[in-house]
Write a structure and sequence with these properties.
The complex is a heterodimer of chains A (about 450) and B (about 190).
Chain A lengths: L9 H18 L16 E6 L3 H10 L5 E7 L3 H15 L4 E3 L2 H7 L5 E4 L3 H13 L3 E4 L7 H14 L3 E3 L7 H13 L6 E9 L21 H6 L5 H5 L11 H4 L1 H12 L5 E7 L11 E10 L2 E10 L8 E7 L2 E5 L7 E4 L7 H6 L3 E2 L22 E4 L10 H12 L10 H8 L5 H7 L3 E2 L8
Helix pairs in contact in A: 5-6, 11-14
Chain B lengths: L3 H10 L7 H27 L2 E9 L1 E2 L2 E2 L5 E9 L9 H8 L7 E3 L2 E3 L1 H22 L3 H21 L3 H19 L13
Antiparallel strand pairs in B: 1-4, 2-3, 5-6
The chains are: A alpha/beta (about 450), B alpha+beta (about 190).
């Protein structure tokens, strides 16, 4: 039956529409980006340990993940702590608790579920172990530790406590990397036999300078007694801990670990030896090498593979940072920067038209043919490989998928698997600890089982 | 007495049909010119509301979404009030550097000519295009459209875009031609002015 519609006059209509729209704007849209209700049972209560540069990078990803409540921030620097608390307060509209000392935080804070550790490398292991032993799940930045024993302690603590411990090799959750490994290398085996890997992180002098300089603003200075208590000699060490032997593994650890991890992950193998060379070619006074090159040897079921890696902090030549998996039928060049990635079909390999049709690849526009040059010797040249692209990418900050994986695992009590738990990270990182010793002694190191095991 | 050549000329101009071919041609010419100028103005105005809507879809392998969360981006053009941009951003930056485009203060009010122009350009093009199309005060509408194109020309002179100035010069010629043909303008809603 038709019922007469209630009469709505113009004034009622306007007032109700405005009220409804306003309520929608206030209550609706922003909610998805706001932190979770701290009282909700589904909320994961998080502490942020270390709110320096990398801590902020991670927080800017965490704020995109629904269901997190940032309960505490911890940093020995009053400036970083205040900044971090301000960032959290601005985001979730409630202030987190602030701590200078992680032990105070763990003793005081109740109800924490997870900790995100972004402290200097030499604190990773102690902080992670403390948090795991306090019953918390931990996401810890890579490198696991500045020492292999520190890394071992993290694996042991994870396995002893049964808590989750994800290491921040964020490429392991990167959809492009996962797609390449699952579909192209393992699924379609488009590389044929991988025979060689090249990787590099070449960084310009401008990006490799000391942070801070001589004159620091008073508000950023950490008192000497605090610095000394936490293992830093002075402010230069605090701000440039990556340059010091006792505090970090140097460029091969800071930059190289990300990419050497990909070598091992994609090959599904650990190297049998490493031979490295390094030097203080430009930064003469630095404790760590400024340029390092190394070759890892692998035995894989397909055959031998040599992987060359270089980290140069003195030049950005060579296209920045990427990893290149070179096979008998194709080469996959991949990088966190999508535009630096490409897939090349070797001349003579089976055509890929079907793979393009099925959605595995996208054809790259052919580059313009270079004009013939008088000094080229045709008989020496191979035909240029045909270029392809991945069929897609992703639209999140680089670290976000890895953090999402961690919190999905926390929320599911471990039924969602971590993409890079401490044990898998250790397998991948262990050979990296031997690069600097090989370069120092100018000797190859053939790994023993003990060297690479927990 | 007509000379032989004058008689020949008259016979060439004589039309066998009831209306003169010359008048019909002028009417068609006026109509086409009006339509061209209207379409040019309306669509240019509407394009000021054009933007790109990017959407991400899971990459499909054999028609099935991949499990690695790889996304393919597709972008589609769409029109919305929120996309409105009267003056393209690339030109705004250039205009801002021009001393003749600086904002000034009159009786405590700051007047930013660029901002005002940015606001009115799109709607003005659409409104004038519609009035020319429908034949609403055609002559005045054409005159105002001419003024608008002169203002655009002035802006392009400032930033030395000679190609654009030439194009606008062609537009001005067309407007003047349309005004000259206004006597033959038909199919109008409001003929006055």
């Amino acid at each position: 039956m038709n019922q007469p519609l209630p009469f709505i006059n113009r004034r009622d209509f306007l007032s109700k529409t405005i009220a409804g729209t306003g309520a929608g704007l206030v209550l609706g849209a922003p909610n998805i980006l706001r932190a979770a209700d701290p009282g909700s049972a589904d909320t994961i209560h998080v502490a942020l340990v270390g709110f320096g540069k990398q801590g902020e990078v991670l927080f800017n990803c965490l704020r995109n993940i629904p269901g997190l409540h940032f309960q505490a921030v911890c940093d020995i620097s009053a400036f970083n702590l205040k900044w971090g608390m301000g960032q959290v307060r601005a985001f979730q509209r409630s202030s987190p608790k602030g701590y200078a000392d992680i032990d105070d935080m763990l003793a005081t804070e109740k109800g924490l579920d997870a900790v995100v550790v972004a402290t200097p490398d030499f604190w990773h292991s102690p902080h992670t172990v403390k948090c795991l032993e306090a019953g918390l799940n931990v996401y810890c930045e890579k490198m696991m530790s500045n020492t292999i024993d520190g890394a071992r302690a993290m694996v042991k603590a994870m396995e002893k406590t049964g808590k989750l411990c994800q290491i921040g090799h964020q490429r392991r959750s990167n959809p492009r990397y996962r797609f390449v490994l699952d579909h192209l290398i393992n699924g379609q085996k488009i590389c044929g036999q991988i025979v060689n890997i090249n990787g590099q992180w070449n960084r310009s002098l401008g990006s490799s300078q000391d942070i801070g300089g001589e004159k620091l603003h008073a508000s950023t200075i950490v008192p000497d007694d605090v610095l000394n208590k936490y293992g830093f000699k002075d402010m230069h060490q605090f701000r440039n801990w990556r340059l010091y032997l006792d505090l970090s593994g140097g460029p091969i650890s800071d930059l190289g670990a990300h990419q050497i991890d990909i070598f091992n992950w994609f090959l599904g193998a650990v190297p049998k030896s490493v031979f490295a060379s390094g030097g203080n070619d430009y930064f003469k006074k630095r404790e760590h090498f400024d340029n390092v090159m190394c070759i890892f040897d692998y035995d894989t079921p397909q055959g031998g593979v040599r992987a060359f890696y270089q980290v140069l902090t003195t030049t950005s030549a060579g296209g920045g940072f990427w990893e290149s998996f070179m096979g008998t039928e194709a080469t996959i060049k991949i990088s966190e920067i999508a535009s630096s990635s490409a897939i090349y079909r070797e001349d003579g390999a089976p055509p890929w038209d079907k793979l393009v049709e099925r959605g595995f690849l996208k054809r790259k526009p052919a580059p313009p043919k270079p004009p013939p040059s008088a000094d080229s010797v045709k008989s020496y040249e191979s035909a240029p490989p045909e270029g392809f692209d991945l069929p897609g990418g992703f639209n999140k900050p680089a670290h976000q998928p890895h953090l999402e994986n961690f919190f999905a695992a926390v929320r599911s009590n471990g039924s969602v698997k971590l993409n890079c738990d401490a044990r898998h990270a250790f397998l991948s990182e262990a050979p990296i600890y031997y690069v600097n010793p090989s370069a120092l002694t100018h000797q190859p190191i053939v790994f023993t089982t003990e060297q690479l095991s927990v | 007495m007509s000379t032989e050549s004058e008689i020949e000329s008259e016979s060439e101009n004589r039309c066998p049909c009831s209306c003169t071919c010359r008048t019909l041609g002028l009417i068609y010419g006026a109509l086409l010119l009006r339509l061209w100028l209207a379409v040019r103005a309306i669509q240019t105005g509407i394009e000021k509301y054009a933007g790109t809507l990017a959407s991400d879809q899971p990459v499909k392998i054999d028609g099935v979404a991949n499990t690695q969360d790889l996304l393919s981006s597709a972008s589609a053009k769409e029109y919305a009030l929120s996309h409105y941009h009267g003056v393209p951003q690339g030109l705004v930056d250039k205009f801002k550097a021009e001393p003749l485009m600086k904002s000034y203060t009159v009786m405590d009010y700051t007047i930013d000519p660029l901002k005002i122009y940015d606001i009115i350009l799109g709607p003005a093009l659409v409104v004038l295009g519609v009035t020319i199309l429908l034949g609403i005060a055609s002559r005045t509408s054409l005159f105002l459209l001419g003024l608008l194109y002169i203002s655009l020309t002035w802006g392009l002179i400032l930033i030395k875009q000679d190609d654009g100035i030439s194009w606008l010069g062609v537009h001005m010629i067309l407007i003047v031609m349309a005004l000259m043909l206004s006597h033959y303008n038909r199919c109008t809603i409001f003929k006055k002015w």
